[in-house]
Design goal:
The chain contains two helices and nine strands. By secondary structure, it is of the alpha+beta class. The chain is globular and about 35 Å long.
């Protein structure tokens, strides 16, 4: 009975691997929400996101409100049009204003392994790659 176990496990593993290859789905992280890590090395707290999934458009969730803006991007050059947002009040509205000011000043984008770095106007915004 002992000698039968390795071939049995090998057969089960091979079947599982073949199934996984046939149904594999490639994740497109550009269409998912990037999660804010920090603005100018300060963590804002809460769930702040940035989504680059639509061509020439940025959307996301600020500390209080959903937001959106037109985007012009050419290589690492990154420029947003005016930021629009919903108008919900919350205790973090000051943090949201600071986030929008920093985001509006951005003029460069850099993607590295697992991170998105936006810089410009003396600001640095770091986003972590989504894991879903």
């Amino acid at each position: 009975m002992r000698g039968a176990a390795p071939p049995l496990f090998a057969a089960i593993f091979a079947a599982g691997a073949a199934f996984a290859d046939e149904t594999a789905v490639v994740t497109d992280f550009s269409k998912m929400d990037w999660r804010l890590v920090s603005v100018d090395e300060v963590r804002l707290g809460g769930e702040v996101t940035l989504n680059l999934g639509e061509p020439a458009r940025v959307t996301g969730q600020g500390p209080c409100n959903r937001y959106f803006a037109d985007l012009t991007q050419d290589g690492s050059a990154f420029k947003l049009g005016p930021i629009g947002a919903t108008k919900m009040a919350c205790p973090d509205i000051g943090k949201e204003a600071a986030y929008f000011i920093a985001l509006q000043a951005v003029d460069r984008i850099e993607k590295t392994a697992g991170f998105l770095r936006l810089t410009g106007g003396g600001h640095e915004l770091i986003f972590a790659q989504p894991i879903n």
